[in-house]
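Note to self: keep these together.
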Amino acid sequence: MKLNVQWLNLSPPRILVLGFAGIILLGTLLLMLPASSQSGEGLPFIDALFTATSAVCVTGLVVVDTGTHFSVLGQVIIALLIQIGGLGFMTMATLVAIAFKRRISLRERLILQEAMNQNTMEGIVRLIRKVVAYSLIIEVVCGTLFAIRWSFDMPLGQAMYYGYWHAISMFNNAGFDMFGDFRSLTSYVYDPLVNFTAMFLIISGGIGFVVLSDLIDYHKTRKISLHSKVVLLTTGLLIILGALVIFVFEFNNPRTLGGLNWGGKILGSFFQSVTPRTAGANTVDIAGLRQATQFFMIILMFIGASPGSTGGGIKTTTFMIMIGAVIAMMRGREDIVFFRYRLVQERIFKALTITLLALLLIITVTMILSTTEDSSFLMILFETTSAFGTVGLSMGLTLKLTTFGKLLICFTMFAGRLGPITLAYALGQKKGKELYRYPEGKMIIG
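Structure:
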């Protein structure tokens, strides 16, 4: 078997779009099979499309309950779609090519560079090997911990199946679960093993494979790249700030943290701070949160995970560049500096473009859904941001979506997984380098 995309006279962004779309279509057809459902009746096309899109885009929004509707075959198909979607179809294709000792061409390396959101092709195949190895090791170890814990609540075989299935879902920041009735992990709000294992999976999948590689190789290299430093700093600050805000806002809320003891409040606060970073699992009722907390979680979902990870959102580095630009402007400085390194202007323009495109997408989809769906504005905004950030947290709107609403959320999940710029490059016309520059103009701002 040969990994070969030479015949495709397409740009890397277009190949990524077509590749993900192809996997979604295949997943849709498989989930429509009668054998994929416990009832023996095939899932309707629109619901199968929604579920396949949610799985491949590692989101977790569902229109039917994964644990009660799908058969073992259907659940395994969803897990495979999550794994392929989380690691990327080009990563999986490269793994097959490496297994058959096939050479990875220059064009394929360019596509991998785009898929992994890297600035250079150097070491890209070596990174792919690390991605697969790290993913499997983390999923197996954490899946075993889940299995041991759940073996006290269910038969050992089922506990092992649940353990490894949920490890795949959480490491890839998918948010799917099989506990039935859309309960997610609410039964384990007090359980430290389940909480810490799940949070470790979510964070390790969300910080990005480059950061994971830096951390694992630190004992050899004794250095951490600028990218990894910014990602780790931002991730830590957002988790701590998020837990503090949720703890304060929900402390006396009887529907969430109000009925828990201090241990439950702390665990619940940290878990709900981690999960909006594109994971989708929850240990308290999201619909029961105060509106201030729900809006704060919208902000966390919009920021999302980190580049080169299994998560979505505008990414932590984009967020930090925007914050750095504001601080630099307020201080009257020309450069954005992190850890004594100056960022080039191209990075700043890209961060600004990503943020504005993401905001435009969310605003447009929210406005349209506000006219087609019979729900509150905050619920629609929450669901739309959850879809764009490939989070999977829901206030209950997904189950009530119209057919048009489901299609629009599918597109939002697809755009969120690929990224606004990749989608824009794929849909836009490729232009060559400009041969001239216009004279400089002046505008009044502020």
